[in-house]
Automatic annotation (TrEMBL):
Annotated InterPro entries: FAD/NAD-bd_sf, FAD/NAD-binding_dom, SQRD
Protein name per Swiss-Prot or TrEMBL: Sulfide:quinone oxidoreductase
Origin species: Microlunatus panaciterrae
Its EC number(s): 1.8.5.-
Keywords annotated in UniProt: Oxidoreductase
Enzyme class: oxidoreductase
Gene Ontology molecular functions: oxidoreductase activity
């Protein structure tokens, strides 16, 4: 009996065990998945909690409800992985042997990594929304906030869902206008990037949207510490950004057990082949989802598309055949822009987000890099798709590889590729 062990029952881990349980004979393969608890969060929903769009009970369900029969679910904390011995040890001393290991332990915000972030103003005037508790606390703070300087801040890249800070900023602008207090609030967007986004065409487009909403952008800002007494962000080049209410995205890091196991880089992300997700250190270890160091967004869509490639490759590998699938870094993300509108971006390792239509050329119905109501409805509809189609590993009519169909590069003269 072969043993497949998956660390992490989040988006990637849950999809993998659902898809592989159907394709690996139960008489030949024992599948186990490990996670620290039985709560599966719908993390894109955290963005909406501060504005009351979603209720807390809408953003989490039990992990075990999404695991198929024939998969053992172990609740426990991983202490370390011994890649040479093919053994995982949990913090309570239990050990789990494997023939193949998939690490899908994700990434987490680490406010402890920035001096002053967890100081006296934490959860008083400094908040995050990438955690359930943070989003809930921020919801209470926003209700009381009626004037002053609201600063949205990114500590450093990479972060989970890199468009989420922009979405929060757009939603805050819309929410303040609806409350009739926008003119009493100065909105500031502080980023370590040179502009609003990592890629130039999208950065220019999203930057113009910030300008239109009179949101000041403080770019190339790498925070050195937060002065709690003065309520101020201080950068390494000694710039200062004061705030009355700070919504920060802390440094994101992979799981600590990755570091203890000697498997990660300086941010605890696992170096892998970016096309197969196979560890560069151990051939029987894969890192899928946010836990790897692949140079694309840490987003649910990346987990989805990469799992599609991984599963077919894994079946080839265990049959002794070469892995022929190559993940291209495909990501697509909705961007809420307020007032019941949103954008969609679609890109990969080599192609930046471009304008156009998705998934069908000209027809869409989603617009790429364009504010539409259809994109907003798509974002809201995705919660149902996540619980009912994506996590159970059911088929979705979206190709794993990015397509140029429907896209147009504004810097070139050719028309839409159809």
């Amino acid at each position: 009996m072969k043993r497949l062990l998956v660390l992490g029952a989040g988006t990637a881990g849950t999809m993998i065990v659902n898809k592989l349980r159907r394709r690996l004979a139960a008489t030949d393969w024992h599948i186990t998945v490990v996670d620290r608890d039985d709560v599966h969060p719908y993390q894109p929903g955290y963005l909406f909690l501060p504005f009351g769009t979603y209720k807390p009970e809408q953003v989490s369900r039990s992990r075990h409800a999404f695991l198929p029969d024939g998969v053992d679910f172990v609740i426990g904390e991983v202490d370390r992985v011994d890649g040479a011995a093919d053994l995982v040890t949990l913090t309570d001393g239990r050990t789990l042997a494997y023939d193949y290991l998939v690490i899908a332990s994700g990434t987490s915000p680490r406010p402890d990594q920035t001096p002053g972030m967890l100081g006296s103003e934490w959860r008083r005037s400094i908040f995050d929304f990438f955690t359930f508790d943070g989003a809930q606390a921020l919801a209470s703070a926003l209700k009381e906030f009626d004037h002053g300087r609201l600063v949205v801040h990114i500590t450093d890249m990479p972060i989970k869902c890199p468009v989420a800070p922009l979405e929060f900023t757009f939603l805050a602008d819309s929410w303040l206008r609806k409350r009739g207090i926008r003119d009493r609030v100065e909105l500031v967007y502080v980023t370590p990037l040179p502009g609003a986004f990592t890629k130039p065409i999208a950065s220019a487009h999203l930057g113009s949207m910030l300008d239109e909403r009179k949101i000041h952008v403080e770019s190339d800002f790498l925070v050195e510490h937060i002065d709690n007494e003065k309520k101020m962000l201080v950068s390494f080049d000694e710039r200062e950004v004061p705030f009355d209410l700070l919504v920060t995205i802390p440094l994101n890091m992979g799981a600590d057990f990755v570091a203890r196991s000697g498997l990660g880089n300086e941010l605890n992300y696992i170096p892998v082949d970016r096309h197969t997700l196979q560890s560069k250190q151990f051939a029987n270890i894969f890192a899928v989802g946010d836990s790897s160091d692949i140079p694309t967004s840490k987003a649910g869509s990346v987990a989805h598309f990469s799992v599609e490639i991984f599963v077919d490759n894994f079946l080839q590998l265990i049959q002794g055949r070469p892995m022929t699938g190559a993940f291209d870094g495909h990501a697509n993300c909705f961007i809420e822009s307020g007032d019941h509108k949103g954008l969609l971006i679609d890109f990969n390792y080599d192609t930046e987000p471009l304008p156009g239509a998705y998934p069908l050329p000209l027809v869409g119905p989603m617009g790429l890099l364009k504010e539409t109501r259809a994109n907003h409805l798509g974002k809201l509809a995705f919660r149902w798709i996540y619980w009912n189609v994506l996590l159970p590993g059911r088929w979705m009519p979206l190709p794993a590889h990015m397509s140029m169909i429907g896209k147009k590069n504004p810097n070139r003269t050719e028309n839409l590729i159809t």
